[in-house]
Amino acid sequence: MPIRLLSSEVSSQIAAGEVVERPASVVKELTENSLDAGAKNVSISVADAGRTLIEVADDGHGIPAGELELAAARHATSKLIQSDDLFHIQTLGFRGEALASIGSVSQMSITSRVESANEGARLKVDGGIASKVEKVGAPIGTVVRVENLFYNVPARLKFLKTDTTERRAIDSLVTRYALAYPNVRFKVTDGKQVTLQTAGDGDRRAILAALYGVDVAKQMLEVMATEENMTITGFISPVSLTRSNRRELTFFINGRWVQEISLNSALLQAYHTLLMVGRYPLTALFLDMAPEDVDVNVHPTKAEVRFRAQDKIFSFVQRSVRKALLAYTPVPSVSPQLWGSRSTPSEPRTVGIDWSIGHDSQLTVEGGQLTVGGDDEFGETSYQSPVNSEQSSAVNGQSSFAGVPLLRLIGQIGSTYIVAEGPDGLYLIDQHAAHERVLFEKLMAQHDNKSIPSQSLLAPEIVTLPPQSSKILLEQLPFLNKFGFEVEEFGTNTFQVRSMPMLFAGGSPAMALKALVEDFEEDESPLQAEVEARLAARVCKRLAVKGGQALTSEEQKSLLNDLENCQSPRTCPHGRPTMIHLTVDTLERQFGRKGAR
Ligand code: ADP
Ligand code: MG
Prior knowledge:
Elements: H1 8-19, H2 23-36, E1 41-47, E2 53-58, H3 68-71, H4 98-104, E3 107-113, E4 120-126, E5 129-130, E6 134-136, E7 141-147, H5 154-157, H6 163-180, E8 185-190, E9 193-197, H7 204-212, H8 214-219, E10 221-227, E11 230-236, E12 249-253, E13 256-258, H9 261-270, E14 283-288, E15 294-295, E16 306-307, H10 310-328, E17 355-356, E18 364-365, H11 389-396, E19 408-413, E20 417-422, E21 425-430, H12 431-448, E22 454-464, H13 467-482, E23 486-491, E24 494-501, H14 509-517, H15 528-543, H16 553-564, E25 579-583, H17 584-590
Helix pairs in contact: 1-4, 2-6, 6-7, 9-10, 12-15, 12-16, 13-14, 14-15
The structure holds adenosine-5'-diphosphate and magnesium ion (MG).
Adenosine-5'-diphosphate (ADP) binds near residues 34, 37, 60, 95 and 99.
């Protein structure tokens, strides 16, 4: 084929693809335009997760009627004049691409009025073709209405995820902007329902509450530091509050949401050794610096940036976060070092103990890799032990291997561990992990038999969740009902729990619901059974007895008994060990009765 210039239609669709990937990208560009226009109120409406409608209305300075056509043209911007300006950009936009891009892949209308005009004007753009500007009555400000996104690019439509996922992307975007601009009032409406509303009174913690719920918002620690010409403000979660993914690490630089790997790693270094493997904090941090110290013109969506002094910023973030963290984090009274060091396997062993997990004395945990402590509050973690009882039993092909012998209760220590004697030595059992395992196996067994006995609550409990969480919970209602909960929607973001599975009698219904929605992975796995087991494990974790809870000796005995009857008593449903076994042999070596190695 000969070389030809692309038609303007094709080239603008190609360019649009860089900026407009999904409904949330439209919301982002329009919201940023509103903020650039100095809006104090930004009102966003969507329908069908933004597929059929996205409308962003603001009370900013507006666009003069004579400039409307230009506003929708490619590379037309009021925010930049010469190339030099690129190096000290103060606005969120500057590429002059968004409106043109959106207009080329949707049916868009821009209605706007500036203060000096006594009426407004409207421009319609359909698939990149603009019609004449018409006069209309309008308040001061701008309304951009985007209908039928990608109607003329069906290939793009196919890449959109489920409505839930697209909705979530929009919500998470707007809530982040709301956090970054606490003095602007944001409102999101979905159909007729208002799903997010902020006061615009500068109170960031209130917005955190709308985002994560009051409990979480209360716990978040404040960061505030200034150094040379950099400032960092915002919130980080204490080490007891974590997620299993990095999605809640939010950084804004000069009012712009960025996804910067280097900032994430600075942050995680600040938490170093304080979090368990695979756990991540929640953060919303806002960095401000001179515009010339950061190059935002690296990426079409401006999600990546380059810093002039990357190392300086990195260490500033790390130090500020660490400081905030240590100021609030009590030193744990029982150090994990108590049981063997956390040292790397290559280092010489400090304690000559074989921490046998299995019955088989060959299966030992190398060089202190096994760490005790790590309280349940750290949440679910895949425990990375070189020896995994389930794995080993598969290797040995003996199911009995993973079991435990009959145990004789000795007592409880630290209100957290149960000490027991077996025919082959001493067992230390983590009561929380053990109870989690017991609940989980009982629940799954009842579920397999399709008979989960449930018990009505004396008084139904009302649980209110943050909007995002309640949306997730609504999707999980069938799961809950299947597992012996009776939960129904009771109002906006509010649920009524009428009964709970008998197994959890006495447990907190609110805890159970929260367990289901926090940490929710965007999981589109078709393996329903797997998802159910995971959710069940999560509920069991929340309702299991905690470390630090004194148990009567009856309770200790029955826990041991239940554990003996489990199929995989040696790990909790999340893979952490429930017990440590000290063999008689090990004890004898330790006491010098047998030749030490
Ligand atoms: P950019 O934001 O990069 O300048 P856009 O295509 O997003 O490019 O917008 C083009 C121009 O239209 C902007 O420079 C601005 O002058 C004007 N504009 C867009 N949205 C608004 C708005 N909500 N209020 C006022 N002016 C706007
Ligand atoms: Mg813009």
